[in-house]
Write a structure and sequence with these properties.
Blueprint lengths: L10 E2 L7 E2 L3 H11 L2 H7 L4 H15 L4 E4 L3 E4 L1 H36 L6 E5 L3 H12 L4 E5 L2 H9 L5 E7 L4 H5 L11 E15 L20 E4 L4 H13 L12 E2 L2 H9 L5 E5 H6 L3 E15 L6 H11 L1 H8 L4 E2 L6 E2 L1 H5 L13
Parallel strand pairs: 5-6, 5-7, 9-10, 9-11
Antiparallel strand pairs: 1-2, 3-4, 7-12, 8-11, 8-12, 8-13, 8-14
Helix pairs in contact: 1-2, 2-3, 4-9
Amino acid sequence: MWRVSIHPEWVVAPAGGEAHPLPELLPLLTAIQDSGSIADAARMTSMSYRRAWGMLRRFETAFGLPLVIKTRGQGTRLSALAERLLWADRRVAARLSPTLQSLSSELEGELEALLAPARASLRIHASHGFAVAALVEALGRQNVPVELKYRSSTEAVAALARGECDLAGFHVAEGAFQKASVEPYLAWLDARRHVLIHLAHRTQGLFVASGNPKGVRAVEDLARTDLRFVNRQFGSGTRVLIDLLLARAGIDPSRVAGYENTEFTHAAVAAYIASGMADVGFGLETAARRFGLDFVALLRERYFFASEASAIGKPLLRHVVTLLKSAELRTVIDALPGYEGRIAGSVIGFKEAFGAGGGPASAAPRR
């Protein structure tokens, strides 16, 4: 089985001037940030001290500003410019990683079809999530070919109804918002034709800077004029939840400063706030913790894979269910902040998942 890996790479250049690629500089700056020493950073990035200094000086000359600040007795720290470059790189990675993972998976599928045409791939269309990534990584370690497409929850279940995938990942709020958050999927999922595989419980809430300097405590705070919000894109399951929370609080979205500013992943929202471009966002606790943010929990939800009931006993899906029930993968899911994998792999029907009237018992999916 062949692996394809695609990583973002960016360059900076003055208008009409020489381009300056950043692939070597950014790891060096990260190492300086972590170690507080150019000499240690050079060793951490496997380059000589002379080369590291030369690279720093070359970029400082190009930018016309320092990248590092040396203080006697206190080591070396990054300048504001260097910190901004690192945050920009983290935002690039957070925004593009799911897209690049999907593209890598598609290319792997094309290679697999040419090199091993008799071997079937598992087709997963899913809303992006950290437990989904953990499952795909586990399948990869077992050499199970996967064609993964990250897309909105609604797009994923629509693809399943059209026969374009084997598993469609989507998430549904628990409690008062369950019925409303299920509603967008009912046009596509049919209780007579589809079953659900439980992946994880997870927690969504507000992202704020470390220490919560602006004292954000609840959704009602989003109407404050001193807060800048960063949203998720229209059509995402998380955007549905944001809108439900605002409606319950009686807040018109037009009153939320930054409501129209959107990012396509939980990590991208977290990176946006961590870089100081917004004060508050909404998403998964895992993303907040990975970017050093504080988190205000608001609700818990369940993440499911929907599949054809007739396919659940076939080898590929049977293998997925077995893997999800394994202690190894459940431990990985439990280790994700805000996630719980205790009942991962449970196969249930719509009535069991959502109660009477909570599933599309008589609905026929659109074609």
